[in-house]
Write a structure and sequence with these properties.
binds zinc ion; five-stranded mixed β-sheet
Amino acid sequence: MQIPVLPDRINPWQLAAESGRLDGELKLAALPRLAALLEHASGEVKVALAAGVDEQGLRFIEGTLQTEVDLVCQRCLGPLRLPLKVAVNLALVRADAESARLPDQREPLLAAEADLAVADLVEDELLLALPQIPRHQNARECEANGYLSPGEPVPDARQHRTFAALASLLQDSKRSN
Ligand SMILES: [Zn+2]
């Protein structure tokens, strides 16, 4: 399947008026502010955005961005590959003052001029979605990188105890027969 080509720049107001779409992929390496925060800026971000005018007359751009980023876990300092699926829900505003009047679910996209770099839009949304302190979700993954959580029993020792208990139970049952 051929990947649709994203335009470099758009007129967001015109895109909304035409109920246009932005579909395609961008290389993470082409997003320098994001790439600077990543361990490796390899891979792409899938862009699937639709523009339009809602029932309140707001010009919107909404949809999803999907990618995987390589970060460093701040607990075990091991590599952390994090899938990101970002829901985009933007309303175009010409001035900051208009932002206050937006419904809760929409975030303002300041587009005073009729010219917007698609990469900037995508990069801003991904930056907002990055965790402040990236960490493996499961502490076991950190343990696999040699991290021992302080104050918690080491799972291996617990397992040995269980087997020891099982072994003595078996011994007991043999004796009683
Ligand atoms: Zn970790």
